[in-house]
Structure of Bifunctional NAD(P)H-hydrate repair enzyme:
Amino acid sequence: MRTAERELMARLPEGALMQRAAAGLAATCAELLGRVYGSRVVLLIGSGDNGGDALYAGARLARRGAGVTAVLLAPDRTHPGGLAALRRAGGAVTSGVPADGAGAAPRAVEELIGRADLVVDGIVGIGGKGGLRPDAAPLAALLRDSRAVVVAVDLPSGVEADTGEVLGEAVRADLTVTFGTHKPGLLIDPAREYAGSVRLVDIGLTLPAEAGLEALQHADVAARLPLPGAASDKYRRGVVGIAAGSARYPGAAVLAVSGALRGGAGAVRYVGPAGDAVIARFPETLVSDGGPARAGRVQAWVVGPGAGDDASAVAEVLAADVPVLVDADGLRLADRAAVRARTAPTLMTPHAGEAAALLGVPRETVEASRLSSARELARRYGATVLLKGATTLVADADGGPVRVNPTGTAWLATAGSGDVLSGLAGSLLAAGLSPLDAGSVAAYLHGLAGRFAADGAPAGAHDVAEALPEAWRDVRV
Ligand SMILES: NC(=O)C1=CN([C@@H]2O[C@H](COP(=O)(O)OP(=O)(O)OC[C@H]3O[C@@H](n4cnc5c(N)ncnc54)[C@H](OP(=O)(O)O)[C@@H]3O)[C@@H](O)[C@H]2O)[C@@H](O)CC1
Ligand SMILES: Nc1ncnc2c1ncn2[C@@H]1O[C@H](COP(=O)(O)OP(=O)(O)O)[C@@H](O)[C@H]1O
Ligand SMILES: [K+]
């Protein structure tokens, strides 16, 4: 962002970029207010350009008849042009600095925020680090109890722009207006949750071709879906092997197969102790006795869902010279050296708890730092890692762009939905997708299917699997 901004700024008249940002911001605020004239708007203003954006937007609203007051956190270092514009437009200004530099915001500011219809958070944007400082933190705390709509400028102040971490107090916004491109902090939890809905304002930047973080869209997924052609047969489409389930958890096998049948492979082979349950539900499954090594040929393996303590199946699968997806119990049973020694691709699909166990850190650490956790796991195991949870991330071992899934929904937090995902992703691997594509396309379809299956009401994992064809069709339109 900074590089792209510098290049563009050098070619444009001074302040042009900020005016574009402010115009987009003001338009969104006006839309949220409905009636601008007579509305009460409070601007929270830090010392940088983020505050400048907010001040210019505030000036636009004041010219349309809003009562606008700017609360300055650094009265001596406020963006001068923005402040002058607000004053010219008839806006008011007050200090937001706590009496002793920390603690509570001034009483007058508390009252202002209490009466506001809309608050614009221009405390800090991409220039901030380390959570809000003690002088700014009380303002974020005040917003939590306010009835006003909170609009964050570029990012909710206090979240880490590059990682999605939240290191201390941060603003919780209803909506964030961001400029140029989405920042990781708007896409990855926990920060994502602070942003509310996100609106992107194009300010004319030329962005680098390769980003640190990528989010597939419908067209990207459609282009990666394995579709049968005239020359296809079931073997050419790919056979996926599922080594899952146990006497205790036969359902995991059924659910993994249900995902695999809807992932584009031409056939699904099942090995394990839940063959009867699988056949009863899905008669098209090729069930074989004996371990993975004695099953027929497959183009990819899925091992682990509900597998209990069968370490031998995991070892046999890891020894196979085809792409392998390791999930759930398989992650616990897999030997790290055996994973690292593999020459065919490996895709690991831990949730935060499993990732924490693999990294030797508490679960909360993984949840608080998803991006670095996924990258670190991928690096340590020399594998592609799909980290499940509120935000699903897929990281390759080579450190290239990480894929963030934009379709997830909390309705997916239901037992067995991860088993569906692993079957689905394994099927895509068997159909020839790279682990990065298989993982991110699977997460995308799975998220959509979760939304379709739930549609505002709880859905079980089997409902998610049954909604996968609808997700395919939706993506292909
Ligand atoms: N460049 C452009 O063309 C365009 C840029 N745009 C906009 O500019 C924004 C970036 O502006 P920026 O670089 O001035 O930084 P910014 O985010 O305002 O914060 C820096 C100030 O905050 C302070 N501060 C730091 N950490 C803090 C903390 N934890 N808690 C509290 N305060 C903290 C720190 O203060 P200091 O350390 O000096 O005391 C510093 O002065 C960007 O997000 C976008 O909105 C758009 O207009 C489009 C065109
Ligand atoms: N809060 C959430 N928001 C979005 N998706 C979630 C959330 N919690 C869990 N998920 C998704 O639900 C699935 C759960 O998988 P997993 O944890 O393996 O459960 P199980 O082992 O019961 O199948 C994953 O795809 C995960 O990304
Ligand atoms: K902000």
